[in-house]
Amino acid sequence: MVVLSKIYTKTGDAGETALGNGARVAKHSTRVHAYGTVDETNATVGLARQHATGEMELGLARISNDLFDLGADLCRPEMERDAEAEFPPLRILAAQVGRLEREIDAMNACLQPLRSFILPGGSALAAHLHLCRTVCRRAERLTVELATMESVNPEAVKYLNRLSDWFFVAGRMANDDGRADVLWVPGLTRGA
To answer: How far is CA 169 from the centre of its chain?
Structure first.
């Protein structure tokens, strides 16, 4: 259980922060960028939830909780003895990736195949979901970069990859099951 009685600690005033294992690193480290961008993704999910109802809102609520799990995963470097730790680290599991895949397949079954790229927009919910998608892609790129330097849970990378696809398909659903998608017309404005 987390208890936060004092919000500011002044321990980061010198440009460092503590990881989940207690190690101190620069706030500009790739690891901090990765889990910070996961947090940013979660903030965009909060905005999208303001426009969602029913199953879409429930799906976004699950994702929001998953993103906190993912942040916890990334802020605690993997170690060979994770299972022996006093407080075992929270790691993203293949089951969470699988759930996203099942949800993507179910949503996509309602949509017509794409015959053009789509532009972000349409309904307010779709626009917010496209913002979620692009911030999630940045979190994925940073996590992949981190994985070239340090050990990273491979399920964390898979989760981010599937999640951006989830946001894309959900954005199409939010546009009247794709019927109100804003289609890209190549070169449309070149002569304007």
So the answer is: 14
Q: Measuring CA to CA, which residue among 34, 99, 23, 28 is closest to residue 73?
A: 34
Distance CA 132, CA 134 (A): 6
The two structure tokens encoding residue 28:
């500009």
Q: What is the pLDDT of residues 85-137, one digit of tens each?
A: 677 889 999 999 999 999 999 999 999 998 899 999 999 999 999 999 999 99
- pLDDT tens for each residue of 26-52: 899 999 999 999 999 999 999 999 999
Other CB atoms within 10 A of residue 171 CB? 26
Domain ranges of the chain: 25-181
Tokens for 79, please give them.
């170690």
Q: Which residue has the tokens 């961008």?
A: 37
164 vs 129: CA distance, rounded Å: 9
CATH architecture, range 25-181? Up-down Bundle (1.20)
Q: Which amino acid is at 49?
A: R
* Rounded-to-integer distance, Cα 22 and Cα 55, Å: 38
Which pTM does this prediction carry?
0.92
